[in-house]
Amino acid sequence: MTIAYDPPALDGETLDALLYDHLSEWGPSDQFYLDLVMAAESVLDVGCGTGTILRRARAEGHAGRRVGLDPDPAMLGQAQESDAAEWVRAPASAAAWDAEFDLAIMSGNAFQCLLDDAETVASLTAVRRALTDGGRFVFDTRNPAVKAWRTWTSAEPYRFTDPLGEPMSVVQEAGEPDGEGVVRLDAYFSASYWDEPLKASCGLRFPAPEHLDRLLKAAGLAVEERFGSFTGAAFDPAASGSLITVATPLGRNGLRPRAGAGGGAGEVPSRRSNHPRHP
Ligand SMILES: C[S@@+](CC[C@H](N)C(=O)[O-])C[C@H]1O[C@@H](n2cnc3c(N)ncnc32)[C@H](O)[C@@H]1O
Predict the structure, then answer these.
(1) Could you tell me if residue 64 is inside a domain?
(2) Residue 232: exposed, middle, or buried by beta-carbon count in 10 A (0-12, 13-18, 19+)?
(3) What is the residue with the minimal CA distance to atom 22 of ligand 1?
(4) Domain that includes residue 102, residue range
(5) Residues of the chain with pLDDT under 70
(6) Can you say whether the dihedral through the CA atoms of 216, 229, 67, 87 is positive or negative?
């Protein structure tokens, strides 16, 4: 169900979600995922948000099955304005499909919304189950070694015009990672709608690559390819901003059902990289 953009009536997180597309542009990471989607028969977009990638895929003639999954009613409500895909409101851990998709994606750093090992392994296990044996799960996270959160606290407000034509600004404050590697990010929106800034908070986890590999293995997935940028550069543990992973299901014997690289993960960086709230 669509939630109306009515700032005085919204909490900060809902406002933030309803501004998501307004503050985002199509970028190289979207194109990277779109290319993968266009080459796949059946696609599960995990944490699909407003459904941007699946909507574009349908507009560009993708003829197979498209399913978008997201737990956030404000994000998914925007996706549901389109019939470009089947839209399911649920977290990744509740994905209930069995060997139905040859591609699952988790774009825009949505994977970082999985805030602890238990939720991450449950989510990965559900995604693995949804994949065919030869299927692939492609997702991006940010490399903790680069400490991107240290650039997220605003020096100046980011000013923009909201969907109703009102001047609005936002400032951000990011903390340091806690014991689980979770960074808290608070945003404060200001506009004539409110006497005080409206606060929106979220947590983003920064798993290290070795940690990520252990979580994937625990869920029956193995790393097939890894990139450090959406241009397809190799992952550099010390310098790459992004950690882009292509994972495949392990067979019942713990071995990969097929050998070699999957290909297809060519060009990629992120529309979300210039999003002031999803940097
Ligand atoms: C930064 S947005 C990215 C949205 C979209 N993938 C994109 O590229 O535009 C992160 C999304 O992850 C979703 N999310 C949060 N927790 C989740 C979970 N446990 N399972 C699946 N998605 C989740 C949020 O609701 C949000 O829509």
Answers:
(1) yes
(2) middle
(3) 47
(4) 24-145+206-249
(5) 252-279
(6) positive
Token readout for 92 is 């990744």
Task: Give residue for tokens 């699946």.
Answer: 54
Of all protein residues, whose CA lies closest to atom 4 belonging to ligand 1?
49
Residue nearest to atom 25 of ligand 1 (CA): 72
Find out whether 225 and 265 touch, Cβ atoms under 8 Å. yes
Q: Taking CB atoms and a 6 Å cutoff, what residues make up the pocket around ligand 1?
A: 46-49, 52, 70-72, 75, 91-92, 107-110, 113-114, 123, 272, 278
Task: Give the 3-state secondary structure of residue 200.
Answer: strand
Helix (H) or strand (E) holding 218: helix 209-218
Please report whether residue 163 resides in a domain. Answer: no
Residue 68 forms part of a structural domain: yes
Q: Quick one: angle between helices 52-59 and 28-38, nearest 10?
A: 60
Q: In this structure, are residues 19 and 160 in contact, taking their beta carbons and an 8 Å threshold?
A: no
Chain mean position to CA 204: 11
200 assigned to some structural domain: no
Q: For residue range 146-172, what is the model confidence (pLDDT) as tens digits?
A: 999 999 999 999 999 999 999 999 999
> What is the predicted pLDDT for the residue at 278?
53
- Testing ligand 1's pocket by substitution, the residue of 70, 93, 116, 139 carrying the most ligand atoms inside 8 A of its CB is 70
Q: How many domains is the chain partitioned into structurally? A: 1
Residue 87 sits in a domain whose CATH number is 3.40.50.150
